[in-house]
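Subject: for your reference before the review

Hello V.,

The reviewers asked for a structural picture of the protein, and I figured it would be easier to keep everything in one thread rather than splitting it across files. Below is the amino acid sequence we used in the manuscript, unchanged from the supplementary table.
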Amino acid sequence: MMPRLSFELVPRRGARRGPRLLLAAVLLVAAGEGFVYLSLQQELAGLRQRLAAAERPRAAAPRAPSPDDTRARALQASLQQARGVVESLALPWAPLLDALEASGDLQVALLALEPDAHKRLLGIRGEARSYPALLAYLARLEQVPVLAGVHLTRHEVRQDDPQRPLVFTIAARWRVEP
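And here is what came back from the structure prediction:
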């Protein structure tokens, strides 16, 4: 009879310890990874809370005007300006200009008319050859029916001109009959 052959390459004592050590190592690594996972989850939750808190004031802050809002405001401003122009053009300019032309003479030269149609005010800038010529022009303007409250607001002699004209500014209210 033949003896029984044994095919165990690893003795039984060592075989029992190896799998237990391997299992313990795997459990330690899994526990470590689990701990890292939990700490990352807590950090992520904290970051999400900070992000939500940072976005809340932005939502409460006034939003920037959209291009449509900007266009609407620009259109509204253009409409108001157009209304002002139409109102200015609808005023009776001819009687005012005729009265200013009729009250003028060769001693006084008008340099600029500065009408404020909305407030019904008129500024007149000009030059007079002398102070008496300016006072005579002022008296004639006071007689014009479309003007009221005519008064001299500024006058000075131009020293740089050899003829030394008197530069003046006159203010008046413009009467517009409806």
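For the response letter, the relevant points are probably these. The helical segments are 12-60, 67-90, 93-103, 131-142. The mean pLDDT is 81.

Happy to draft the paragraph if you're swamped.

O.
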